[in-house]
Amino acid sequence: MTAARELRELSWVREPALWQAVGNTPLLPVELPGGAGRFWLKAEWMNPGGSVKDRAARAILRDALRRGLLSGRRLLDASSGNTGIAYAMLGAAAGVEVTICLPGNASPERRALLEVYGAEVVVTDRLEGTEGASRRARELAGADPARYFYADQYSNPANPQAHRETTGPELWAQTAGRMTHFVAAMGTTGTMMGTGGFLKERNPAVTLVGVQPDSPYHGLEGLKHLASTSEPPALFDPEVPDVIAEIPTELADRSARWLARSSGLLVGWSAGAAVAAAMDILRREPDAHVVAIGCDTGARYLSEPHRWAGP
What we know:
It is a single chain. The protein has a 6-stranded mixed sheet. The protein has 2 domains: 3-51 and 162-308, Rossmann fold (3-Layer(aba) Sandwich); 54-150, Rossmann fold (3-Layer(aba) Sandwich). The N and C termini lie far apart (56 Å). It is globular, with a radius of gyration of 19 Å. The protein has helices at residues 3-9, 53-66, 82-94, 108-116, 129-143, 158-174, 190-202, 249-263, 269-284, 305-308, and strands at residues 27-29, 38-43, 74-78, 98-103, 120-124, 148-150, 181-185, 207-213, 243-247, 289-294. 40% of the residues lie in helices and 16% in strands. The chain is of the alpha/beta class. A hairpin with an 8-residue loop joins β1 (27-29) and β2 (38-43). α6 packs across α7.
């Protein structure tokens, strides 16, 4: 009996121990200049795979195994890196083989981690970004459906459901329901759709702030400028975010540098964009209670030293 089949036939209690380490990340206070406002960062880089994407990847794998979709097949998906790393790590623990279509502009650290975990990496045109990687994944799945299960994180309902079931309830408990604003960067949009939906059910007055780059041409890996993309995520419901904050790459970089140097918290560029949006809220509403998602660790971007230089 293969590991994947055995896992499918057992209850969730018998899943690999590593899978149970996903979630329940701490909510860390961020010190602000002058002490104005209240700001917390959900430390998603403390998941075992180093990013918020561990949650969606586990939910997608769990659902696929329970439905028998991985029997004799590899999990296939497109990823800018973090979801792919999560698939590869969690899949290695469960005996599931993984193929990731990765845009050529993904950081070297991300590709190296995929390979360390044993994933097959198909590198796609850097200029086509995640949309090009998604097209290549669909081509592979269409050409050989007996070999691949195409997970498609951009349309898989298990993605937002993971956040509805875990991230949202964790934040509600950690803040005792007192947050006024929730901020999340948007790529697949699963974090915003799932967490935001849960929070709105608990308190309709919570303001949901979705963060995206300020133009189609940006340096924020994994994020989408939704208004201009030719393939918007199927998961995205424009009615969920109350506000869309557009953040320039340079401001996201500066915010990530500030956070590392002022608080010792090393986050990536998409988390830097969320921090920038949160700081803007607090400048306008100094009594706000703001929670932002710290998507991943900045250690995945150390091969870009020019972005860490400067004030």
